[in-house]
């Protein structure tokens, strides 16, 4: 058993663990691509051998269907590893930059050095994917890592801990299990990089703690991701995509569509297509969605009460139930729920929903829909469905979001060529693929000069007329 997991003196032991990783990070600074690739390959091999255990852990934690575990927990991790293995040599290679005229005679390169020690704090909603995903980026960049998974998914967190103990020495990668107190102690340490995935509220705490040591941070946060459905969208296609993107993982997805803005002429079309899609995906035999083996459950009683409270609050303030609303506390089941006639006074429009409830509002002009989105904090993702290219680019130009998807939703998470992440309240920094590698790397700019020569030789004091003439022409021409 790892000493840092004892209860007697966790602070001392965590510090010792950190100090040991610090020493390893100095050795790993010079690790080659093939050494890093070997570390990644061990993870793939472990996953292959323990795939059923991963599925079982997720099933125990919140009834996550096996197919969804394979698709949204395992596949993104193995794909991320394969992508890194394929590209790591290229990413690590120092990049030459062109020389600006005033720097003539010098050469410039960007070196990618590992930041060093890293801390990864992960959430419960994709507890395998969102813990191992950042670890792949840390290992690709050559960093050590201490991982603090969520306490709300104990089976998956324990499995991750076993996996890391099987594959790494504690001075390389280690898992520290625990709740807020453990995170708080970890956050006091001078990590070179902190990668946090979770709520904006805790993100602020993490950033504040990081500022004490000036540790760099990646904050993958949440928020209310809107869907805009323009008049000319293909409503059958859009409804199917939105239903899947919203109700996969029982709506407990950071990039799930949080609310819909649909053109007022098309609300009924959208609603009827969404009902058809819900039936087709989750109730093909007309036994009720509760019987579907493909619908996960709410993670715990606290979140169950929060979500049923959101529905009650909306209905008590005049919202209409267009679909769903049933729930069962014993199994923590909440039926996919569509609400119309919602207003900003309702909780459902004030906080990130993070569950299977979808409010639908109408708009009269695209300008008004855009203004509504812009009146709220910048979202993690924005989804636009429509076929008019002018409206598409207007929406992209006039809104700000971490990511945007046209005519689909959620799918961008799987595109490893794209930076993934939020903007301001929905996140700081990006992850996935090269962007994840960059998050854990210091881009060191290196300038090489010729011996005996210097581009500012003529500009040294005492500043004569010639120097002043050169400085004026520099300002004028460059
Ligand atoms: P959370 O912020 O409550 O917890 C995340 C992690 O922080 C957990 O490991 C938890 O133990 C730890 N933590 C909690 N309170 C803390 C504190 N006071 N100090 C230090 N650490 C603390 O988030 P959650 O409920 O696990 O996850 C849901 C949130 O995460 C949602 O807002 C969702 O949008 C967001 N999320 C974002 C992404 C993304 O990639 N951007 C992905 C998944 C989830």
UniProtKB/TrEMBL annotation:
Keywords: NAD, Oxidoreductase
Biological processes per GO annotation: aldehyde metabolic process
Residue ranges occupied by any Aldehyde dehydrogenase domain in the UniProt entry: 26-444
CDD domains per UniProt: ALDH_AlkH-like
One term under GO cellular component: cytoplasm
Signal peptide positions on this chain: none
Coiled coil: none
Presence of keyword Oxidoreductase: yes
GO MF, any single term: aldehyde dehydrogenase (NAD+) activity
Active site: 220, 254
Similarity remark: Belongs to the aldehyde dehydrogenase family.
Name of the protein described by the UniProt record: Aldehyde dehydrogenase
Species the sequence originates in: Algoriphagus locisalis
């Amino acid at each position: 058993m790892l000493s840092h997991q004892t209860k007697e003196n966790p602070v001392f032991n965590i510090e010792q663990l950190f100090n040991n990783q610090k020493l390893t990070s100095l050795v790993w600074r010079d690790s080659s691509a093939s050494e890093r690739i070997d570390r990644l390959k061990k993870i793939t091999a472990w996953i292959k051998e323990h795939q059923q255990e991963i599925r079982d852990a997720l099933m125990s934690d919140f009834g996550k269907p096996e197919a969804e575990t394979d698709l949204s927990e395992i596949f993104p991790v193995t794909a991320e590893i394969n992508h890194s293995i394929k590209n790591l040599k290229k990413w690590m290679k120092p990049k030459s930059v062109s020389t600006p005229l005033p720097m003539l005679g010098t050469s410039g390169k960007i070196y990618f050095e590992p930041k060093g020690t890293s801390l990864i704090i992960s959430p419960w909603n994709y507890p395998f994917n969102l813990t191992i995903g950042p670890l792949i980026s840390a290992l690709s960049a050559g960093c050590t890592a201490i991982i603090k998974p969520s306490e709300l998914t104990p089976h998956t967190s324990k499995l991750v801990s076993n996996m890391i103990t099987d594959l790494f020495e504690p001075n390389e990668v280690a898992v520290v299990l625990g709740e807020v107190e453990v995170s708080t102690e970890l956050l006091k340490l001078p990590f070179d990089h902190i990668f946090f995935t979770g709520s904006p509220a805790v993100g602020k705490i993490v950033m504040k703690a990081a500022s004490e040591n000036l540790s760099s941070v990646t904050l993958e946060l949440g928020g209310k991701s809107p869907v805009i459905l323009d008049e000319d969208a293909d409503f059958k296609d859009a409804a199917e995509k939105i239903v899947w993107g919203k109700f996969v993982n029982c709506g407990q997805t950071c990039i799930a569509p949080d609310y819909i803005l649909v053109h007022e002429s098309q609300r009924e079309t959208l609603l009827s297509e969404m009902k058809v899609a819900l039936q087709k995906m989750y109730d093909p035999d007309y036994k009720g969605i509760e019987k579907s083996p493909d619908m996960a459950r709410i993670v715990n009683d606290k979140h169950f009460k929060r979500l049923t409270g959101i529905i009650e609050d909306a209905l008590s303030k005049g919202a209409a139930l267009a679909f769903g609303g049933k729930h069962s506390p014993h199994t923590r089941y909440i039926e996919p729920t569509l609400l119309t006639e919602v207003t900003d006074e309702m909780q459902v429009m004030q906080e990130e929903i993070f569950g299977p409830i979808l409010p639908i509002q109408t708009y009269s002009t695209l300008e008004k829909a855009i203004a509504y989105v812009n009146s709220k904090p910048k979202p993690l993702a924005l989804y636009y469905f429509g076929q008019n290219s002018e409206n598409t680019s207007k929406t992209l130009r006039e809104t700000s979001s971490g990511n945007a998807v046209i005519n689909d939703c959620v799918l961008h998470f799987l595109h490893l060529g794209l930076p993934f992440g939020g903007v301001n309240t929905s996140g700081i920094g990006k992850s996935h693929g090269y962007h994840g590698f960059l998050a854990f790397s210091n881009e060191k700019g290196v300038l090489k000069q010729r011996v005996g020569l210097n581009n500012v030789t003529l500009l040294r004091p005492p500043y004569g007329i010639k120097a002043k003439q050169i400085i004026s022409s520099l300002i004028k021409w460059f």
